[in-house]
């Protein structure tokens, strides 16, 4: 495998064709990450510099170098390790700069937030060079919310989590542009018949190893959301209808959401959306992390891919699930490839409201 290195202006710098290991972790609801280890050479040291971009010919994502470590050891000689996140991590460098009320589709909301804070902001110093909006897909998922002075990447992750719409930034090196894209995985589970089905299971003998996780410690299913006002005059909205021992309550302080210029009904919808986003963080974590057989890996990206809904299970453990592929880690070490998909809910990062 060859890795291509570009500068932030997407000018080609060189090729890395020899390395000891590469970890390429793709994430559906967030920006992915990478880690590369190779020998220290004058060329590698020059091009593997912070802010430069590593691309692969077989991947839609590219990684931004954020960390560099060089080491000299008696056993391994001189090595250089670079770490970073994929191009959508650029959104971590921006906040939502104004009070923004949004009502409509989640896809349009994502595009508006990116456009107003990175592409066409009122302050031209906030423009992210080369960034543009990709094709509008017309995804139907709806939202109504207010956001201000929050980290842009965090809010895109929030919207992705509640809608199951993925997002990424794709580098078009020929046009020298960075394209913001939304996408959705395909349903390839045994619950549908429109396309070929995909099953990860010991019954199908396509798993080398697997780890099943279930954790409900942080699970919440009822939210009381507080908006503007004080004491008995504070505007309150509740989400959820669970009762008795099954009810797990959560308090959401959404006083930062303002009611200026909108109706009471619109404001209550905004508070409800704030509660829904917080509940999206507090889900039951249930997943299988699997190392798959090479024959299954050959269908990677064609028969199954990041964001797809698949069937999976472990017959010996009496576990069967229909889940989304939320993460895929590709590991290349000394010429050996491993693909490790996370099937189901990953442990979430903290979501801000």
From TrEMBL:
InterPro entries linked: Gp28/Gp37-like_dom
Residue intervals of the Gp28/Gp37-like domain: 2-345
Descriptive protein name: Gp28/Gp37-like domain-containing protein
Domain of life of the organism encoding this protein: Bacteria
